[in-house]
Amino acid sequence: MLKSRGEYLGVRGIQARVIPVAFLVVMGALPGCEQADAPAEGVTHSIAGGTRETGEQAVVFVRSISGTLCTATLITPRVVLTAKHCVQDSGDAGPEPASYLTVGIGDDMRSYMEAHKVSALRTTPGAYVAANGDITGEMIGVDIAVLLLEDQVTTVTPMVIRRTDPTPLVGAATINIGYGYTETGEAGRKYRADSMITSVNETLIYIGSQTCQGDSGGPLIDAATREVVGVVSFGSVGCGVGFGAMNRIDTHLDLIDEVIALSHEVCVEGAEELCDGYDNDCDGEIDETCLILGDPCTEGDTCSQGACRPTASGHFCTDSCNPTTPAEGCPNGMYCAFTEAGACEGVCSPAADANGNYDDHAYPLGHPCERNTQCLSLVCLAGSDGASHCAAPCTADQGQCLGGQTCETEGATCGFCQDANVDPNQPTGLSGLGEDCSEDPDCSSNLCVQDGQTRYCSVACSDGQGEPCGGGFYCKSDLCVRGSQQAVGGPCSSNDDCTGDLRCAGETDRWCTTGCSNASPCQEGFTCESIQGTLLCTPEKSILGALCQAQDDCQSSLCVQDMCASPCQGNSQCPGGFECVQAGPQDSTVCRRPRPRGISGSCSLGEGSGHSGGAGNLPWVLLSCLFAARLRRRTRPC
User: Fold this and answer.
1) What is the greatest pairwise CA distance in the chain?
2) pLDDT attached to residue 267
């Protein structure tokens, strides 16, 4: 359960790059991390070893139009508490505009119950620097942001914050809840885990290893009183190991109370009711004379939220949104549609036709269609032949398309996934980062890399010089590779494919793992077994890419064409060496190992001599890449 932010995690944007958009992070060990005063830097994390949470609706998610996903807490009907690094980029003097943010209520960010716009936000003052994508000292203990919603949340009871010193709670039982990554690589669904406060200092509260990428900004809850005592900021080592660090709330009450004061309504008997989200005339109703989002309107009508704008279904009270994530950022009954094909601008549009009828949103990618709402992707695109088919929106160089597709942007940033041009006479430089290629000249970067049985365009990077790869990629052996680093049980070909100090073990099917013993047992779903004389956490079920006969054979509970698979919406959501393809029931899209393809020259992430990264003489099964890999200790924002 942790924050997914592309700059740090690959989900700025739980892809979250869900996600979606996430949540792609590298985590490393810190010396002395058990001590309350030891960590000077932090690692971004999710809720590790947790269980699905379908209640606790006051725990919400914050999504930015730029792609960030974080966890947050509703503490009054209009005030939301989260982390500063969720709403402010490294190096920026202040937070991003409030209009970029949406707060979602529900236990799954893909099918949430409500969405609320943010009208104002406050953070602790000053810029900060994320060195190598890690939170550094200037953010430690001041990683707090408070959001003011445009309207009140009337369907959820807010959580109470603890206003006194949390030091007496050392040893007390606590609860973490968030939307971050789980051990299976899933993110965007709400999970919870039991925890315990191990220590408290002047600015931070420390717990065990319950948080992971996408959980940033989420609450640390006192199990006895149900009060929120801390806000998730950073962690160390990796999901399920190390420690988690929370910002104390009691040291930031002035900032929190400032926003709570802004939320108080001031009304005057008999005053004119304005369309501002307040009860101006003291009649107990808010904006009763105004139209709200989703209402049909005519030019000149006043909307209490957004503005009266044209959509494909006529004029409606609507607001701007991110068209590359059409199912997110709009209220129920609406979706985000491109204002024009290829433009990076979207507007919330009604999902029903003029008669109030809704489509099933059931057509898979490539299916003939007549309108957006017939498609699972919410995009019906006319092709060069005049026929319309369901297509996926995309952003250039994000690896969001399926295997065999490219993101066609026509010179813009946003576009649509289309089958790659297989004409041998096509111009060079048409394939972007993460898109399929045969040789170097096929890529705009002039760098075509072999990753397992996949070949795609890459760019050079340096693991010691920040996180240049962006969302959906990570730096491995000086090349940007698709996917995210894996937690325990995730497929791998080398140590660099695993988070933190985890290592890649196994023979035919390799997975990220860690050592174990009677005193240090494995998490649920894994057993402690001797592999080549070393006790390692071993999956009880087949990992992604392994052979299977039934759904229950797989960790992912998804067996497609005799291979364990996982759902995906684009190549960057799949681990290294996998690709996102149409397969299985109703042509759903899943991560699979590709069928063998012809291989020619160019860069190759091939087998070779690995690095131990301080693992001593443990017989890890290692794989190296084109260049010498360098394992570095890291800290990452949650």
Assistant:
1) 82
2) 61
As a whole number of angstroms, the distance between CA 193 and CA 183 comes to: 13
- Residues of the chain whose pLDDT is less than 50? 1-49, 422-429, 464-467, 597-604, 606-638
Phi-psi region for residue 235, left (φ > 0), alpha (ψ -120 to 50) or beta?
beta
Q: Given the structure tokens 């939170």, which residue do they identify?
A: 135
The structure tokens listed for 517 are 């013993």
Q: Where are any strands of DSSP class E within 203-287? A: 204-207, 219-222, 228-235, 244-248
Distance CA 222, CA 162 (A): 9
End-to-end CA, the chain = 9
Q: In what order do the strands lie in the sheet with 589-592?
A: 566-567, 589-592, 579-582
| The Cα angle at residue 111 between residues 105 and 115, in degrees rounded to 5 | 35
d(CA 476, CA 467): 11
Q: How far apart, in whole angstroms, are the C-alpha atoms of residue 442 and residue 437?
A: 6
Query: Residue 7: phi, psi to the nearest 5?
Result: -60, -35
What is the 8-class DSSP label of residue 433?
Answer: T
Among residues 71, 78, 83, 123, the alpha carbon closest in space to that of 260 is found at 78
Predicted pLDDT at 276: 65
Please, is 448 exposed, middle or buried when counting C-beta atoms within 10 Å of its C-beta (0-12, 13-18, 19+)?
Answer: buried
Are 82 and 217 in contact by the 8 Å Cβ rule? The answer is yes
Residue 62 CB neighbour total at 10 angstroms = 27
For residues 204 and 36, is the Cβ–Cβ distance under 8 A?
yes
Which three-class secondary structure state does DSSP give residue 497? helix
Phi, psi of 631 (to 5 degrees): -85, 125
**DSSP line for 296-329:** B--TT--BSSSEEEEETTEEEEE-EE-TTSTTSS
- 3 state SS of 257: helix
pLDDT digits (tens, 9 = 90+) for 357-381: 788 777 888 889 988 888 888 998 8
* Residue 40 CA to its chain's centroid (Å): 25
Calculate the dihedral angle through the C-alpha atoms of 193, 199, 201, 204, rounding to the nearest 10 degrees: -10
* Secondary structure element (H or E) that encloses residue 7, with its range: helix 6-9
Read off the pTM: 0.51
* Nearest by Cα to 265 from 152, 115, 159, 119: 152
Rounded Cα distance, 493 and 506, in Å: 9
Q: Is 221 left (phi over 0), alpha (psi -120 to 50) or beta?
A: beta
Tokens describing residue 518: 């009677």
Question: Of 490, 465, 467, 461, which is closest to residue 573 (Cα–Cα)?
Answer: 490
The DSSP result for 21-47, as a single string, is E---------TTTTSTT--SSBB----
Rg (C-alpha) for the chain, rounded Å, is 24
Per the listing, tokens 């939320």 go with 263
